[in-house]
Amino acid sequence: MIFHRTPTAPLLTREDVPDLPPDLVDVSSVFNPGAVLVAGQTILLCRVQTRGRRTVTWPAVSNDGPEFRFTPRPVEFLGLADQPLTIHHNYDARITVCEDQLYVVTALDTDLGCRLAVWIADGPPDDDCAGLSRLQLVSLTGEHDTRNGVLFPRRIGGRYALLERPNTTQAAGGPTSGSGVRLLSSDDLLTWSDEGAVFDGHPHYWDELVGSGPPPLETEAGWLHIYHGVATHFQSANIYQAGAILLDRDDPTQVLGRTRDNILEPRLDWEVSGQVPNVVFPAGLTIAGNPKIAGSSAALNLYYGAADTVIGHATTTVGELLAACR
Q1: Who has the most CB within 10 Å: 84, 160, 186, 258?
Q2: Is 8 left (phi over 0), alpha (psi -120 to 50) or beta?
Q3: Helix (H, G, I), strand (E, B) or coil at 292
Q4: pLDDT-based confidence at residue 177 (cuts at 50, 70, 90)
Q5: Do residues 219 and 294 lie in contact, with contact meaning Cβ atoms separated by under 8 Å?
Q6: Could you report the per-residue pLDDT of 199-216, keeping only the tens digit for each?
Q7: How far apart are the first and last CA of the chain?
Q8: pLDDT tens readout for residues 13-71
Q9: 3-state DSSP helix/strand/coil percent for the chain, to nearest 5?
Q10: Is residue 46 a contact partner of residue 12, using CB atoms and an 8 Å limit?
Q11: 268 HSE (CA, 13 A, CB side)
Q12: Contact criterion met (CB below 8 Å) for 134 and 76
């Protein structure tokens, strides 16, 4: 396995989430965290699910590695009330630092399907999470059913770039999913254009259905991107695993390499058993030192949801992932 779990117990569980009466008491789960490293502090935007199966996004922060603490309150989202949609859930935050701004992309479950929302950090700088306590809506990326949106950490060809996974497939026993990732671009983060397909799933193998994980990481070799793959051909089981793909730095629709096998799969009890069994879902990635372009020896920290119930942590290096993308 290219990713090494540290520790072998979950990093965060429902017991770590503080009570916030009257609605957030004895929550059911915490999973799928976006991640960012700011001034030596690791910040996770965790998906917390209540016993009523409502979702909030709650920051957890760490100054010393494995020990995380939740901030006093969940994230406040501003701007959704102006949208002509009935929004049921806002979830799976992905954090990107681009041009010294903190941006977040989330998925919105609406009455017309899933949409992607782009947000900018608008909280006070002393909120203990780099302004991520409050997010202001910038735009929705379009009017089609889509999920798994991640923003690149710099403009490409003068335009912002974003990966998405259109929802075109109904997974057995699961939500609407998709088998291909596409590239969007924008001059202003407001109006988005489809630039074409990036990669598809592999029928009959571990990544039949696919979707982006954390935002891409720039290396000298290209954009290194961790994604999730779902194996659907095992009877009555959709197994979520992680893989990696290498994209051209100037044209991310060009694939330079891809892992043949998964690089992290459900094996431990808390990955195999939970609200959604057999799931490791890569969601947040940080790199030691936060270099603009990552070298091969750079250490990576992956934060992932396990069985839609808890959060796990695993490590590797840029070099190990690049070597596997052949």
Answers
A1: 160
A2: alpha
A3: coil
A4: confident
A5: yes
A6: 999 999 999 999 999 999
A7: 16
A8: 999 999 999 999 999 999 999 999 999 999 999 999 999 999 999 999 999 778 999 99
A9: 5, 55, 40
A10: yes
A11: 19
A12: yes
Give the tokens for residue 270: 């808390």
Comparing CA positions, the residue from 199, 214, 188, 189 lying closest to residue 282 is 214
245, β-bridge pairs? 225, 258
Give the residue ranges of DSSP H helices in 28-99: none
SS3 322: helix
HEC letters along 101-162 = EEEEEEEEEECCEEEEEEEEECCCCCCCCCCCCEEEEEEECCCCCEEEEEECCCCECCEEEE
Here the tokens at position 281 are 């879902």
Query: 168 with 182: CB under 8 angstroms?
Result: no
Sequence-distant (≥ 6) Cβ neighbours of residue 196 within 8 angstroms: 182, 183, 253
92: left (phi over 0), alpha (psi -120 to 50) or beta: left
Nearest alpha-carbon partner for 32 in 304, 312, 314, 315:
304
Residue 38 has a CB neighbour count (10 Å cut-off) of 18
Distance CA(246)–CA(218), nearest Å, equals: 10
Distance CA 243, CA 232 (A): 16
Domain regions of the chain by residue span:
11-324
Query: Which of 295, 313, 309 lies closest to 27, judged by CA?
Result: 309
Closest alpha carbon to 77 in 59, 50, 97: 59
Give the homologous superfamily in CATH for domain 11-324. Answer: Glycosyl hydrolase domain; family 43 (2.115.10.20)
Q: Answer whether 271's CB lies under 8 Å from 306's CB.
A: yes
Residues in the chain: 326
What is the rounded distance in angstroms from the CA atom of residue 98 to the CA atom of residue 156? 11
Q: What are phi and psi of 270, to 5 degrees?
A: -80, -5
* Mean pLDDT of the residues in the chain: 95
- How many CB atoms lie under 10 A from the CB of residue 59? 26
pTM: 0.96
> Both tokens of residue 57?
């996004």
